[in-house]
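Table S2 (continued). Query chain:
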Amino acid sequence: MALEHAILVSLLEQPGSGYELARRFDRSIGYFWTATHQQIYRVLKRMENDGWVDVREVAQDGRPDKKEYSVAEAGRSALSGWLRDPVEPETIRHDLAVKIRAVAFDDPSALIAEVVRHREIHVARLEHFLEGEKRDFPDPGALGTRQTLQHAVLRGGIAFQRMHIEWLDDVLATLHRLRPDN
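Corresponding output:
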């Protein structure tokens, strides 16, 4: 997926400035597709030049005017075409998994602290996702189409974090069992 598509989706959900888009990426979209603020601004400029987004100047009191972006027809067409193109399943590059295999040639206890650190990160992400679910989707039966699909993506993130925590628990149990002092 190109960053352009993630930006188009975000702008269809709600038009906004480059700064507002960057904050959305930091809060939600960024858990599934990351981009720096500089990348977002650079791609927005390219999308503007290609006619994918419309831009309007918004006056602000005491601050410079800001540019508010929204999706133009050419952007909708590009997104529609991309939605119909097949995509390959994601290839996973997982440094920790390679380290887990590599520790067979060293002391397994050397990796325990790193696996615990990864587990803590995934637990924190899971808690963040669950808080967001409670806040943003308190009544899943009353959601419109867009919110139902946003909730489906969030549920995928929740399931991924739970799966990862379960796997890391298994890895920790295995590393403890294989320690030389056992």
